[in-house]
Amino acid sequence: MSHTDPADHDEAADAAGGPDAPGGDALAPEVPADDSMLVTARGIRKSFGANEVLRGVDLEVRRGEVVVLIGPSGSGKTTVLRSLNGLETPDAGSILVDGGPSIEFGAPVPKATRFALRDRSAMVFQHHNLFPHMTVLQNVIEGPTQVQRVPRATAIAEAEALLDRVGLAEKRDAYPFELSGGQQQRVGIVRALALKPMLLLFDEPTSALDPELVGEVLAVIKELAEEGWTMVIVTHELGFARQVADEVLFLDGGVVVEQGPPKELFTKPKEERTRRFLDRILRPLD
Ligand code: ADP
Ligand code: MG
Q: Quick check: CB of 44 below 6 Å from ligand 1?
């Protein structure tokens, strides 16, 4: 992690954890990776007014797999994540998560079905979206206690274990404004984990951070990948993507232009559009 501040190094290493790290396997997913399909999205279409943003996106994610979405601004990456999370309702296509009902869009989708989709995943946003008037602990237990009706004592114990694993145990009673951007974003990740989702969605989780804070957040996400979490990550951190991704999808103009393992897609892109995009990121001044 070349971006990690040396002063923060031990903390980042703690966050990256190991078998002996405090908190045991607090970062392990509820459902172990077994290679079966967790997400199958087919032909997802979405327009905003006359703007056709997604033009038939297919995406498959196996349990324990990390899929990275890359692509230019406006290519529809966020809309894909929001569709998977039930925050956006596609105009057409289908989404199936964890062998639940295959949701066919186009016809009205019952509210209960949409909520079932939303419950299966948790999203980490570019900006952490923590409640400013709540402490770190209150932010983390809000979802479990208010939405999932987890007993307060249980939620607190689980939140403390998670905070410990990302090196933030001592920030339990701090308010968001007292934390660095990197710490806030780590709390945002813990808040998503506390919901015990099957699928974690990250929308440019480090793009709002000062460069020296990027490493500590990527270290936590990398640890989650190693623990077997199933994740879809939108990021422009290509070095990180190369380390964690099983599959990379390049999105442009609302379609998946090309996809493949990072080693292939980053070094031998087949499509000219992919090559041009990678060049712009890797050599912005050329
Ligand atoms: P990306 O995340 O790749 O930058 P987005 O999915 O955020 O792309 O957006 C793709 C396009 O959809 C953009 O042109 C954006 O302005 C438009 N868009 C996204 N959300 C909305 C919305 N709620 N209402 C209208 N237009 C939207
Ligand atoms: Mg976006």
A: no
